[in-house]
Amino acid sequence: MRTRRALAAVAALLAVTAAATPATAEPADLAPPGVNDWDCRPSDEHPTPVVLVHGLGGSASTNWAYLGPELVAEGYCTFALTYGRPPLVPPVTGGFAPMEQSAPELAAFVDQVLEATGSERVDLVGHSEGTVMPQYYLKFLGGAEEVRRYVAITPLYDGTTLHDTSELLDRLAEEIPVVGEVPDELCGSCRQFFTDSEFMRELNADGAAVPGIEYTTIMTRYDELVTPYTSGYLDSPDATNIVLQDVCPADLSEHVAMAFNPHVGRLVRNALDPAHAQPVSC
C-alpha cells in the first residue's frame, strides 16, 4: 500500500502540466504566438519585458499557451524559456534537472532578454517550479539586480508536504533501492520541492522574500500539489498575497488550471501594471 501511494504521488508531481501537454512532439524552442520576439522593443506603456518561467514537466510552449499571447496582446515584450531538460527527459518538457542547475539557464536567458530589448530589468511570471527555481537565481546568482516584479502562480516558498510523500519515498528507497533511485535520476528537482529538503532549507535560510523585489503571489485553496496551499503565502512588506477564491469564490481551479485561468490572467496583468489595474470579472 505504501509503495503504491508513493508511486501515485510521484506520478502526480511529474504530471504538473501533463493536462496541457500535447501528445505530438514539437520543437523544444517553440513558444506561443508572439512570445520570444527578439525584435520586440518595450513601449512607454510597458517598459519592462516579461519572462515566463514554467513548472515541472512544462515548457515555454505548453505552460504559457494561454497567458503568453494574452500578455503579448496587452503590448508586453514577452519571453519564455524551457529549462532543466536532462538527457533522459523528452525535449518538450523541462524542470527535471536540480534547480541549482536550472537557475543558471534562467540567468543566461534573462541576460539575453536584457541585451535584446535594451532594458535594465525584467519582470518574472512563474508557475509552480517557476516560483521556486528563480528564487535561487535571485538569491545566489545576482538576479535581484535584474528583476523588478515577480508574479508567482501556485507558489510554494515553504515547499510542499505532498501528503507526506517525502517519507514514503524514503521508505520506498529502503525497501527497493533500485526503484528508490529512479526519481532522483529522472527528476533531480522532485525531492527538492519537499518542505524538509536540504534545498528548501538552504533557499529559505534568511527568509523566502528577496529584498527589493515586488512580489505578487496567487494561490488556490484547491491546490492538490502544493500542500498546504498556504506555502505560497509570503510574509514580506513587499508582497501582495492573493487567494483566488477570495476574489472569485466559485472558481475551483486547481494547480494546473491556474496557468490557463482568465481570472488569474487578469490578476497577473494587474500585478505587472498596478497603476492600470482592472477589476476581475468573475
TrEMBL record:
GO molecular function, one term: lipase activity
Organism from which the protein derives: Saccharopolyspora hordei
Signal peptide: 1-25
Entry keyword set: Signal
One GO BP annotation of this record: lipid catabolic process
SUPFAM superfamilies assigned: alpha/beta-Hydrolases
Name the record gives this protein: Pimeloyl-ACP methyl ester carboxylesterase
Compositionally biased region (Low complexity): 24-33
Region (Disordered): 24-43
Gene3D superfamilies per the UniProt record, alphabetical: alpha/beta hydrolase
